[in-house]
Queue: 3 jobs
Job 1
Amino acid sequence: MNNQTSNHISIIGGAGHVGLPLGLAFASKNFKIHLIDKNKKALKNIEENKMPFLEIGAKKLLQKANKKKLFFYENDLSNISKSKYIIICIGTPIDKKLKPDLVGFYGLIKKLKNRINKNQILVVRSSVLPGTNQKIKKILKNKNSNLVYGPERIVQSKSLIELPKLPQILACEKKSAFESSKKLFLKISKKIIKTSILEAELIKLYSNANRYINFAIANQLYTICHLNNLDFKRVRNIMQDGYARNLNLTNAGFTAGPCLVKDTMQLKYFTKNSFSLGSAAMKVNENIPNLIIDKLKKFNSYKSKKIGLLGLTFKGETDDTRDSLSIVLLNKLKKLNLKILQSDEYYKTKNGISKKELINKSDIIIIGAPHKAYKKLKINKKKKKLIDIWDII
């Protein structure tokens, strides 16, 4: 295999939140990256040095990659023969019944089977149900045995900050494929941890489930405090004052997004619905919008008030609204025929207004996402009511 081919990487899902930052990281090490994605609009934006989503530190790296012509923009698999490494970063959604929907994922593997050769290394980076990589092996059969599972572990919008710092898990049954992928990822990661494939699949999903459950613990306390007219912040502060064993109790807030719920439900499916902690966490977290509405209804004459929802994304410092509970809350408020104003620092809509205008016009202000820009806001609590589950103001 020639040097040029060894320096090429194909990233399937290359315009997405996982694939593009990974491509930028490898491009910064002078690899030639084939960004393969069905989203032609996103690819065009990237080619024009426009990030399709918020990613800290990405803009300069993108400009450098394009200037050095390290990115190739593709909508199909026709050029993957040029790459020694093929990295899969496509989404693995759950359906309306909260079950993994891997039809598209396995469809891609079947297409790859007809194009991949025995010398190429296939790295699965997508979050997948335990056992998925074994099914991939069966689909590929004797076509390619260089299958590696290297799950991403970063926080969205901070990929380029965390990739060099976090250990990269790699799982592979073939020694030569492991050594080659290890050499590759050490270009952008500080440490490689070798595991079995099943271990890696479980670790990835349970890492997200662990966070989801921990958030639910705080949200459960918030709910109990609300039902008993207690101040969550005061109760939490006293619990943690001089008592280190309670320092793990995080703040309350909307807990959702494209990963935590999905991966928790994938584990529920894998365990044949016996993952009771995950189910309980979902019940707690998904009910928070209803709790906020219950708090709203306790204000006198709330139906005649202007209600401002400040922050629409699923968490702070992102422009991503996928599975956002703030959006869920917005839709519930609209169904109540209330007068709603909305604003977000990063996610712009035709109905959106500035945070300053929202504060001036609203009688009741609800913090939907904890963007850092809200920390310095001054709200006259004598004139306006504030619901701030995040405790950011």
Job 2
Amino acid sequence: MQSSAAQSKKVSFRAKETTICPICEYGHFREQMFQGGGRLIAGKITKELRRLYEKNKKFGRINPNDYLLTVCPKCLYTAFPKDWNTLQPAEMERIKSTIGERKVNLEKILGPVDFNQDRNLISGAASFLLAIDCYQNRLPYIAPTPKKAVCCLKSAWYFDDLHNEFPSLGYDKVRDFLYQKASGWYQSTLEIMQTGVEPVDTAAQILGPDTDNNWGFDGVIYLNAYLSLKFKDQLASTTEKQVEMLSKAKRMLAKLYGSGKSSKSKPSVLLDIARELYDELGEVIKTLNGEN
């Protein structure tokens, strides 16, 4: 058993209970992050609602997102812990039939990744790519659309970090593709919130999009507007469609900050960036309409 001194130098630990994969029945000990001990040094929150963390002199790079997803090291089935065992036969069959394809696609982008080893920047990025792939094969009862949106956005963050670390490997192209996919799924999530096609409420605890502040449904509204503006040219082929898309996002954003007064559920940091984005959307819509 490790001494407390040895543990104090580690970022993560292995769970005592074995996690059995429902797809291939492989057993592994899930890695989890230690809490406290001065490991996390929180930095600023970006306009994408991402919390940045400073590099720790003692522990090095630490990112809580590395440990959010459960990944089978053998067949690469991936899910949030809550969804790990909630599989219907049709889902199991789909995920089982795509094992080989999943492994090949991952290696094309990131090379071989060993999930028996401790998580790092590469395996963190890989876990969210795998989650997107697996949630593509899940049925509406677990609300896969908002989960794909969040995983896609987080994956884009990882590939941005990878591009900064290895600028010559083309990770920026993967990052931009993931941002665009995230934008589409955030739009779909917003529609689902209104139609009830998927039980989005069951995904509220992971909507985040980050780990320290769960902005929940307000975050979905904000990120839909942010990503719609950022990728308007890719998402809408004509000026008319862009105006329609951005105007809809702007109306939803207005509901987000309402009176403009901060509260526990709507802290000032979210209201401030939502208001800035609202004004920016207004200017872009004017320009697209030829009013400037």
Job 3
Amino acid sequence: MTQVAETATAQQAAQQIESFRTDVRRLRDEIARVIVGHEEIVEGVVIALLSGGHVLLEGVPGLGKTMLVRTLAEAIDLTFSRVQFTPDLMPADILGTNMLVEEESGRRRFEFQRGPIFAHIVLADEINRATPKTQSALLETMQEQTVTVAKTTYQLPQPFFVLATQNPLEMEGTYPLPEAQLDRFFFKLRVEFPSTESLHTILDRTTTQTSVHARKVLGGANLIELRNLVRQVPVARSVQDFAVRILVGTHPDAEKAAKVLGQAGKPDKPDRNDLVRRFVRYGASPRGAQALLLGAKVLALLDGRFAVSCADVVKVARPALRHRLILNFEGQAEGVSTDDIVSAIIARTPEALPGTARS
């Protein structure tokens, strides 16, 4: 009887995984009908969407960042809202405000008029053009997924997903995102310039009379089910320990860095910890570890597995941690890339410490 139950459970899990992969494949294929190339960016956005996180897209103008978000909204049967961030934008322009309305009886009362944040998918276009005061309006919405105005808290529609864009080149008239805001983004994805072949395809699609739009292939209820399945994927303690050691390795603390290597560690020994101590001011927060594990769970399901591996953690480490490392003055002056630091940490972090079992 036990074997029969275990077999039924295994078959059910296999069916859930195959259904998950089918739904995600349909979504990605529909996005690919409109967006040319950027397979890694599309994969990163989909992983964050399925994990319940938000995404920051960074790239020069004209690479299709806004088009990607619009296409994603078209492919999912959810409400969509776009907010163009400008220096004169106020928090009430995003969240909403209480308006004085007059009833037919002549009585006046305050009524809350909801802002564009009350949508399932929100595009925060050029988010770094707004002042810190306006940027902070997103802190509560992205973490608690609520809006508080005049002592009243309003629940945002579920599922809720923020995808922000920013231009890394044009610095005039922009306000860098504060660390608290950056930490609320699940992934930071860098949109690179397309290849020559992709450029030809883009021109073929955009310089003719025909236009391609994505069809709705996924509903809100389906997306919530997919998110719930991601949370059910088990993670071995050794894999979770690997993710924790990578996270701790981002901190420029000699004692913690030594513990990451599982050895006493000498402060003057030239290893990857020296790189962290030299150029990193603050390491990643626990949200970084959450992003590592949730993103790895999605990758495991997409690969047809109901268990996370260390390779899954490595694959999502750069987009999950690159924006959570705060460089010191020396690192900024020398133009050190946080991706290089994360890569060095991964290269020197063993999947299993000496004397422990390796999964």
